[in-house]
Write a structure and sequence with these properties.
616 residues, alpha/beta, 14% strand
């Protein structure tokens, strides 16, 4: 019995068979008997509902399939129930479109959005019957590619991947495939193809062509290229003109509800704000906007091709889009009022928050509003360069309550550098101040449906941020701070949510890890770790066991302060922002100095001038 028949037999026995059906509206189907076809699997190391909400998947899927001789299929991590059935029935990991085993593919490209998805990658390779370690793969195995934000420090999974793509993938992926097309005609060795990429394709890092040496204290001594003619510094790729770059005018429409069931219009890339904890705000620089004319055109085509009833305006800081007023006025008049299509505005900021705009786009139904003060006191907000004040929060919430909103979410981080318990008190004070503001607006009363949600995540030091030299609070310190806030926020109108401290600790270990972490991740996977970002599946005891068996101290990576002389596992990567700039920002943080919005000021934002020229 072949794989497709077996697959049909087991789908009726799993929780959500629609995750594995394929054939959704706007999906592609090509003749896999065509020997000239280059087959690419876009792999998302989480379940269908999460992966189908990722804008990068929609872009790359449609871009690659727009080429006649490339077939891009989607590959997701099967849920636990599906995996059990696959193993019982000897069903290999498959592409959603053809349902054929991934061993038939030329490339498998994994997007790295979260460090705790790495065991899922190993699990997917094993389910696909592909050797987990890159050194064990033979000539006809697919090449394993990774990209995305976590690729800027890919060393913790360097032993498992063949190709690392740094930066935006639209152009570089096609360049890789073009060089593969030439290599495929003669198929010499895998190493020859990888060597060719390292020499000739900007934005490509081949881990197997580099070695690390270490000092006696465990820090990195040096990175050694194994070939003389490959770069010692690998520069990221960026798309310079978003109007001319590919963006789909039709997207896949799932059969089932996913995390974000809506059209996503990408307004711009990059961010000028410079929050010192934020990796995305650094690595996605410089800022590049799509024109309002292009966005209007895309909105029309996407509405016609999908039937979605909501458009989300997507970017790191939506309210910084220079033509936001014109765009939203058009979308509201053309689609919200005429066709009852909702418009959502994520990433609005306190300091330029337009309640008039939010009110207009939510006339039909007022959902809750989310504000992100990030820290409880002005001192700490200045340390992190947040650039918003308590007055901004007070004014925004007052206007929101006057216009009929009854719920507000406040988002903070705990464990930030220099944080004290006074800063934690500030979080509670802001929550209670919001309650007082609501009372003032409603003649001293609190309505039954009024509530304030306070959420705290734990600070994780990330590569290419001004805070990359700082250690994370210990698990015990984070847990004690969460207990402290739980007591402080005990109120019937306040709901307090916080992120698991053990999960945040492991995230920090891997985010700051080097190649010695590879063996630990492999061992944890073999012990049964997967879906580590899901609370019900997270097995911290098995992770601790894996680190101990490899004689690796987790706190060495997560909790240790670094000095400016230390070599990071990612120092051979050029993310666009200079290390000197990040050092300056770290010193400013110690003094509590703010850095202004860097728009149009390349020296201030630290971006590589070659990348920024003609853009900022």
């Amino acid at each position: 019995m072949n794989q497709k028949v077996n697959l049909n037999n087991i789908l009726a026995k799993v929780e959500k068979p629609a995750r594995y059906l394929g054939n959704e509206m706007n999906s592609y189907h090509k003749d896999t008997n065509n020997k000239e076809l280059i087959r690419y699997g876009f792999c998302f190391p989480d379940v269908y509902e999460v992966g189908m909400s990722h804008l990068g998947l929609q872009i790359m899927y449609n871009l690659l399939n727009s080429k006649e001789d490339i077939y891009c299929e989607r590959v997701f991590a099967p849920a636990v129930d599906m995996e059990e059935k696959m193993r019982e029935n000897n069903i290999s990991l498959f592409g959603l479109e053809s349902r054929e085993p991934v061993t038939n593919f030329d490339f498998l490209g994994f997007t790295l959005q979260y460090e705790l998805s790495y065991t899922n990658i190993l699990n997917m390779l094993e389910l696909g019957k592909i050797p987990i370690y890159s050194k064990d793969r033979k000539l006809n195995h697919p090449f394993i590619m990774v990209g995305g934000p976590c690729a800027y420090n890919s060393e913790p999974i360097a032993d498992f991947v063949d190709i690392v793509v740094l930066g935006e993938g639209e152009e570089v992926t096609l360049e890789i495939i073009n060089r593969y097309r030439s290599w495929k005609k003669n198929k010499t060795t895998r190493q020859e193809f990888l060597y060719d990429l390292a020499k000739n394709v900007k934005g490509v890092y081949i881990p197997s062509l580099y070695n690390f040496n270490y000092n006696e204290d465990g820090t990195i001594k040096e990175l050694v290229p194994l070939k003389e003619d490959i770069p010692t510094k690998i520069q990221k790729r960026i798309i310079k003109n978003l109007d001319e770059s590919f963006f789909p005018d039709k997207i896949l429409v799932p059969f089932i509800d996913v995390v974000h069931s809506r059209i996503m219009l990408e307004l711009f890339r990059g961010c000028t704000r410079g929050c010192r904890f934020c990796q995305a705000g650094m690595i996605y620089r410089p800022i590049r906007e799509r024109s309002v004319e292009k966005l209007k055109e895309l909105a029309k085509k996407l509405i016609e091709s999908t039937g979605y009833e909501e458009i989300s305006l997507s970017s790191l800081s939506t309210s910084d889009y220079s033509q936001l007023q014109e765009l939203t006025d058009y979308l509201i008049s053309e689609y919200a009022k005429k066709e009852r299509i909702g418009i959502s505005l994520p990433s609005l900021r306190l300091d330029n928050f337009s309640l008039e705009l939010a009110h207009k786009v939510q006339e039909v139904r007022k959902s809750g509003l989310t504000f992100a003060p990030e820290a409880g006191t002005q001192r700490l907000r200045d340390v992190i360069n947040k650039g918003v004040t308590e007055n901004d929060l007070e004014n925004a919430t007052k206007k929101a309550f006057e216009k009929g909103w009854n719920s507000v979410k406040l988002y903070f981080m705990i464990g930030l550098p220099t944080e004290t318990y006074e800063d934690l008190d500030g979080i509670a004070d802001l929550a209670y101040k919001v309650i007082d503001i609501y009372r003032d607006v409603h003649n001293g009363k609190l309505t039954r449906n009024f509530n304030v949600t306070v959420s705290t995540s734990s600070f994780v030091p990330k590569a290419f941020t001004p805070f990359q030299w700082h250690g994370q609070d210990t698990i015990e310190e984070l847990t004690e701070k969460q207990r402290y806030l739980t007591k402080k926020l005990r109120n019937r109108n306040i709901k307090y949510n916080y992120h698991d401290s053990e999960t945040s600790f492991l995230e920090a270990v891997i985010a700051r890890g080097d190649r010695r972490i590879c063996k630990v991740i492999y061992d944890a996977f073999k012990k049964g770790c997967k879906f580590d970002g899901w609370g019900e599946h997270f097995k911290f005891d098995l992770w601790k066991e894996s680190f101990e068996e490899n004689n690796i101290d987790m706190s060495f990576y997560a909790n240790r302060e670094r000095n400016y002389e230390e070599i990071f596992p990612w120092d051979h990567i050029d993310a666009g922002v200079s290390k000197k700039f990040l050092m300056r920002e770290n010193e400013k943080a110690k003094r509590g100095d703010l850095t202004p919005d860097c728009r149009g000021r390349c020296n201030a934002c630290g971006i590589n001038v070659d990348l920024a020229r003609g853009l900022c």
